[in-house]
Amino acid sequence: MRYRLADDAKPQIALLLVATVLTIALWFVPFAEYLVYPIRLFVTFIHEGSHALVGLLTGGSVHSLTIGADGSGAVYSVPSGWFGAVLTSSAGYLGTTAFGVLLLFLIRRTVSANKVLLACAGFVGLMTLFFGIVSPIFNVFSLQVGFSNIIFTALAGAVLTAGLFALGKYASVKTANFAVAFLAVQCLLNSLSDLKTLFFINAPLVGSEIGNDAANMANATGLPAFAWVVIWIGISMLMISVGLRLYAVSQKGKQNDLPFED
Fold first, then answer.
1. 166: how many CB neighbours lie within 10 A of its CB?
2. Residue 31, phi then psi, degrees to nearest 5
3. Which residues pair with 250 in a beta bridge?
4. Which of 46, 95, 236, 259 is the most exposed place for a label (fewest CB within 10 A)?
5. Alpha-carbon distance 130 to 123, whole Å?
């Protein structure tokens, strides 16, 4: 098949490139982590929310979802059988990548960016309410997190929900488009960056005993945690590749040499 960059995607590609360059540039700016701190918390909500949703949809029970002030997060749940445990443990990193790809897809399909931001606000709000507040209340005697974690999660979720809602409600079309593109890039790049960190945590000879999703997968399947990180990286790269192709190119007949043309 022969592909070319779709004419109607060129403005969106430019927007996406700006968001990507800005994201990478901020990695090298001193104290820039404070500027993107709310975005980091948002990505963590997506990661942990993916764990919680898949755990619930596979028949398990979610006791709590908490976000730490350092940008970390945790979901404590009781999975429904082996298959549920495997899907739930895999959902964090892959769910974050899939969410970023979904945002790209929605932009490409000209779905209103303001509505996308409102939907993001709704997602964070629901995760905060049901899994960050209600679930801990109903499982108070089996909680494995402190009260301060629940308070911070509630506050962070409320602020993010309000901020996303305000953007979706009042931002101009250009501002909303850039905000969605930036969130998509943040989800994709942060997911890959976190997988890179997980790769070294679980690497043979140099890895550590820090508890993580890959270690949970190793316990459930017997396959080494390092192998699961490699599998997740491969799946994430495949999803990003497919998402970018759907986002940027249009099909134009058959071609056996280059996958893209200018």
1. 12
2. 65, 10
3. 4
4. 259
5. 11
CB 255 within 8 A of CB 7: no
Tokens for 123, please give them: 């997602």
Q: Is residue 166 part of a domain?
A: yes
Beta strands in the chain (DSSP E): 3-5, 61-67, 73-78, 249-251
Tally of structural domains, the chain: 1
Cβ neighbours of residue 245 under 8 Å, at least 6 residues apart?
3
Model pLDDT for residues 140-192, shown as the tens digit of each residue: 777 777 788 899 999 999 999 999 999 999 999 989 988 998 899 889 888 88
Q: What is the distance, to the nearest Å, from the Cα of residue 259 to the centroid of all Cα atoms in its chain? A: 28
Phi first, then psi: what are they for 203, rounded to 5°? -65, 140
Residue 125 in domain: yes
Q: Which of 101, 126, 89 is nearest to 229 (CA)?
A: 89
Range of the domain at 91: 7-186
* Residue 221, in any domain of the structure: no
Rounded distance between C-alpha atoms, residue 258 and residue 262, angstroms? 11
> Whole-angstrom Cα distance, residue 124 to residue 115?
14
Question: pLDDT per residue over 52-91, tens digit each?
Answer: 999 999 988 899 999 999 888 999 988 888 888 899 999 9
Tally Cβ neighbours within 10 Å of residue 75.
Answer: 26
